[in-house]
Amino acid sequence: MNNSFKNLFNKTDTIIAIIIYAMIVFLWNAADNFDSVSDLFAQNIPPQLFPQILLITIGLLTALIPFEHILLKKSGKDIDSGRKKKINFATYGTMTILLTIIVFSEFLGAYVTIFLACFVLPIFWGEKNLKLLVPYVVLFPLFIILIFNIILGVYFEPGILEGFI
């Protein structure tokens, strides 16, 4: 492989882009199996169209990833400089917490899942300022629920709160 071709693509970013495209193919096939569309989007469009539009957008943005290093070099930055550092424990901890919350999300329901994520993650990251934490834990999930339930008309699964809601 000639050197100019090697300089065109960033190896790490190209691998990441290939993984994202593999996920897009998997999700595209999953979107083909949707039987119905939400009332919010049911304006004479097939159920798979909205997710496929989202996947096309992600795919187009992913096409830029292998070439990002070229744009950064022009501004004097090295994309690989930060990649030489070891990944923090906090990163693995955050992934573990999020995966655990996601695994139990169907049982917990959307409301508890959103509140739990907004509470547990800042505590794990070391946030101790209760004047910031309490309003965030209360107001941000309420804001998300308000937007989806009232404005967009998309209702979440209540999970363990089903008897209360």
Secondary-structure blueprint:
Blueprint: H1 3-8, H2 11-31, H3 49-62, H4 68-74, H5 89-108, H6 110-124, H7 130-151
Helix pairs in contact: 2-3, 5-6, 6-7
Give me some keywords for this one.
165 residues; mainly alpha; 7 helices; globular
Strand content: under 5%
How much helix is in the residues?
A: 55-70%
Uncertain segments = none
Chain-averaged pLDDT: 83
Supply the helix-strand structural class: mainly alpha
Q: Count helical runs.
A: 7
Anisotropy-based shape: globular
Major beta sheet summary: none
Order of helices and strands: HHHHHHH
Number of strands: 0
Question: Separation of termini?
Answer: 62 Å
Radius of gyration: 21 Å
What does this protein look like?
- The chain has seven helices and no strands.
- It has 165 residues and is mainly alpha-helical.
- The radius of gyration is 21 Å and the shape is globular.
